[in-house]
Task: inverse folding
């Protein structure tokens, strides 16, 4: 018998632990009803890890992550740790995990659920049926480029430096993920850059095009400047399907895309390493929303993004498309039934707590499995 798949759970800070609790119930449900036995381990990360051990990414957590098949992540950060040295801040844990696990491709879907189309700040007709995926490069670019730092100049003033740098290899491996994804979707990729001002972007554009011409002639590739793309995303978002872009542009534009859906609390994401035959060898899955310290501990957060992140994990890291579909269908059914946490509350709907939302997802899973 194949060894159990190893799953590491990192709840983190703020609402992380409470939304993770609901995702764990879904994991347990699958174990019980589908006989999926995962080896589930839990670790400390972010501010919680800093408080307990003095570092946001303890060696033990990193080792457990390296030894696991996939990581389900909550969220890290909060006002409590904002005054810390840069290297000790909770966010460093996330950046460290991305780098150490070589998770270079970050998939951020922006999907509008039918039941929530009116929750967007954009007109319903612009966003109804919207389904785009941003593939953000995650281990390169200005986030990691050298030189970096802040230095004191001779006249006593200071100078801060970061470097945007990309190589052929870094560009093509993330572009490949986008092209592969496009083949399973509508066959269209937009690549975003600032090739009009940045050499690193000029290279980005050339290398993405070269890969497309050499291996993905069946995929349509359009290049767009990142600033124009920001405008196009709010003007006519449905012109996009798969978007591939650099670390920094992807960070900014994925927040913009997420907001089109009107419900940050609904969006999962996947950070993936190199594919190995059947699936992605390694992945970290996390909701797009943050730690929401203002509502932490109140049983008010939306657990659906964490649950949908687990569905992505099943799909991409464990190759369990049927189970992923099942979880996603249960979430849709809960929305159709009119249940809403505060963040997606609409007139005439039923407002529920974090744990009641978890109960409802389990009930729908029971129904779907019956
Ligand atoms: C994100 C976040 C992170 C990033 C922060 C928390 C380091 O904004 O995942 O988009 O900038 O990548
Ligand atoms: Mg961000």
Result:
């Amino acid at each position: 018998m194949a060894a159990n798949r190893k799953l590491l759970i990192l709840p983190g800070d703020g609402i992380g632990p409470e939304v993770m609790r609901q995702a764990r119930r879904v994991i347990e449900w699958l174990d019980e009803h589908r006989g999926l036995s995962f080896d589930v381990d839990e670790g400390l990360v972010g501010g919680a890890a800093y408080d307990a051990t003095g570092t946001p990414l303890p060696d033990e957590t990193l080792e457990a992550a390296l030894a696991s098949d996939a990581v389900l992540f909550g969220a890290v950060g909060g006002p409590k740790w904002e005054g810390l040295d840069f290297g000790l801040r909770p966010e460093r844990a996330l950046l460290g995990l991305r780098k150490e696990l070589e998770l270079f491709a970050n998939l951020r879907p922006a999907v509008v659920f039918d039941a929530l189309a009116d929750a967007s700040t954009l007109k319903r007709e612009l966003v109804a049926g919207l389904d785009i995926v941003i593939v953000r490069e995650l281990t390169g670019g200005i986030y990691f480029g050298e030189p970096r730092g802040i230095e004191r100049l001779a006249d006593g003033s200071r100078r801060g430096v970061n470097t945007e740098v990309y190589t052929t290899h870094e560009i093509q491996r993330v572009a490949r993920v986008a092209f592969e994804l496009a083949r399973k979707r509508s066959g269209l990729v937009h690549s975003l850059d600032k090739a009009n001002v940045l050499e690193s972007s000029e290279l980005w554009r050339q290398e993405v095009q070269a890969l497309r011409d050499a291996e993905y002639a069946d995929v349509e590739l359009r290049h767009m400047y990142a600033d124009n793309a920001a405008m196009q995303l709010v003007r006519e978002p449905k012109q996009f399907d798969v978007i591939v872009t650099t670390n920094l542009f992807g960070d900014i534009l994925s927040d913009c895309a997420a907001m089109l859906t009107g419900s940050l609390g609904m969006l999962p994401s996947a950070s993936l390493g190199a594919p190995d035959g059947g699936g992605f060898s390694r992945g970290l899955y996390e909701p797009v929303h943050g730690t929401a310290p203002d509502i932490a501990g109140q049983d008010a957060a939306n657990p659906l993004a964490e649950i949908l992140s687990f569905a992505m994990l099943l799909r991409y890291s464990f190759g369990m498309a049927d189970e992923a579909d099942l979880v996603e269908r249960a979430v849709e059914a809960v929305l159709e039934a009119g249940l809403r946490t505060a963040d997606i509350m609409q007139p005439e709907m039923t407002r529920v707590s974090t744990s009641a939302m978890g109960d409802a997802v389990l009930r729908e899973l029971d129904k779907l499995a019956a």
Remarks:
- Residues 251, 255 surround magnesium ion (ligand 2) (CB under 6 Å).
- The longest strand covers residues 5-12.
- The mean pLDDT is 95.
- The chain has two domains: 1-116+267-370, 131-259.
